[in-house]
Amino acid sequence: MSLTSWRRMETVFSAAFSLCFLVTTGVHGDSLTVLQSPEFVSFQKGDWPVSGEKIPDLVALTMGFSVQEDLSWPGLQAGPLFQRPRANVLVVVRGVDSLALPQSVASYPLDNPVPFNLDSVAETVHSLFAEDTPVVLQLAPSEERLYMLGKANAVFEDLPVTLQQIRARLSQDGSVLQSLPLNSLSRNAEADLLFLSEVQVLHDITALLQRHRHLAKDHSPDLYSLELSGLEELSRLYGQDSPQYRDATAILASVLQKFGEDVYGLYGNSAVVEVVTVKTFEAPLTRKSRSILESKQISNPGSPYNLAYKYNFHYAVVFNIVLWLMIALALAVIVVGYNLWNMDPGYDSIIYRMTNQKIRMD
């Protein structure tokens, strides 16, 4: 065999080894799937990877907000300047790299699956629309983590947050246990109840929005960020080849599809619904949780959280009125000063004209 043939075989084996190494060291096919999107938010279909740390910037751009660094990603095209969606719903599913979602707008591979949150987007919504009723809800049932802002918190006060509350909700009328085919899932196992509680939270959010439709019809955008880790617990306890894990994956895919359709319809086909599936994050995420009672202090500019001053929605209108009024007054002063400087007192001023006549008479 010639030296050229050996080199070719060496190149082929090297490429195959590199591919196997990538598969076994963390490239699990994590993805970002866009379930629903209005026509003016244009997602292009393709295999362009998006980094996990850029997800908050992507959400901000879909809502029409500016970001500090330009997102050089061809999957999202620039849309109309005066149109933006009424809501953005981001669901993070841990413990699975992909879900069999029957209908979606587009799907992209997820690179660098680092932990992220939407705190920056939430603060932007709250600062720009503090006087209105934006819904800003970030919830992780598995960690009993809740983060809410805005005046619409009273609507979600009845939303079960802790695992004890959610388990009590599962035993009430209208729970998902009465409508879902549990199959191999058990009502008594801790991991199974955690998964079912997350499904119950999705159901309760749409139910609350249906009872309070005025929240979806105002001009202030809403933000939802939900983190589900029930599949991760099932995978750790039973394994990915277990019937419990397969049944839970099928149930969650069906529930997420219906959840996206319901939210999209409640907001008048003007909502973006994304699903991020990640097998596992590369680093743990720690953040301070806040209860519903702390939302009043967050809205107070004198709170100890070092927040910026409350932004008034009419700031742009008042600014333009003051600006152009100052420009008009400045131009008026310039014109009057110019005319006074070039005025002839003997002919243009009646005071000097009468004074001259009086002097001549004397």
TrEMBL record:
GO BP annotation list? positive regulation of Wnt signaling pathway
Q: Where does the Renin receptor-like C-terminal transmembrane spanning segment domain lie? A: 287-362
Record protein name field: Renin receptor
Q: Report domain Renin receptor N-terminal positions.
A: 30-279
- Name the major location: membrane
Positions of transmembrane segments: 313-341
Q: Report any Pfam family annotated for this entry.
A: RENR_N
Q: How does it sit in the membrane?
A: Single-pass type I membrane protein
Gene Ontology cellular-component annotations: autophagosome membrane; clathrin-coated vesicle membrane; dendritic spine membrane; endoplasmic reticulum membrane; external side of plasma membrane; lysosomal membrane; synaptic vesicle membrane
One Gene Ontology term of the molecular function aspect: signaling receptor activity
On subunit structure and binding partners, the annotation says: Interacts with renin. Accessory component of the multisubunit proton-transporting vacuolar (V)-ATPase protein pump. Interacts (via N-terminus) with ATP6AP1 (via N-terminus). Interacts with ATP6V0D1; ATP6V0D1 is a V-ATPase complex subunit and the interaction promotes V-ATPase complex assembly. Interacts with TMEM9; TMEM9 is a V-ATPase assembly regulator and the interaction induces the interaction with ATP6V0D1. Interacts with VMA21 (via N-terminus); VMA21 is a V-ATPase accessory component.
Q: Where in the cell is it found?
A: Cell projection, Dendritic spine membrane; Cytoplasmic vesicle, Autophagosome membrane; Cytoplasmic vesicle, Clathrin-coated vesicle membrane; Cytoplasmic vesicle, Secretory vesicle, Synaptic vesicle membrane
Keyword set includes DNA damage: no
Keywords of the record, alphabetical order, are: Cell membrane, Cleavage on pair of basic residues, Endoplasmic reticulum, Membrane, Receptor, Signal, Transmembrane, Transmembrane helix
Briefly, what is this protein's role?
A: Multifunctional protein which functions as a renin, prorenin cellular receptor and is involved in the assembly of the lysosomal proton-transporting V-type ATPase (V-ATPase) and the acidification of the endo-lysosomal system. May mediate renin-dependent cellular responses by activating ERK1 and ERK2. By increasing the catalytic efficiency of renin in AGT/angiotensinogen conversion to angiotensin I, may also play a role in the renin-angiotensin system (RAS).
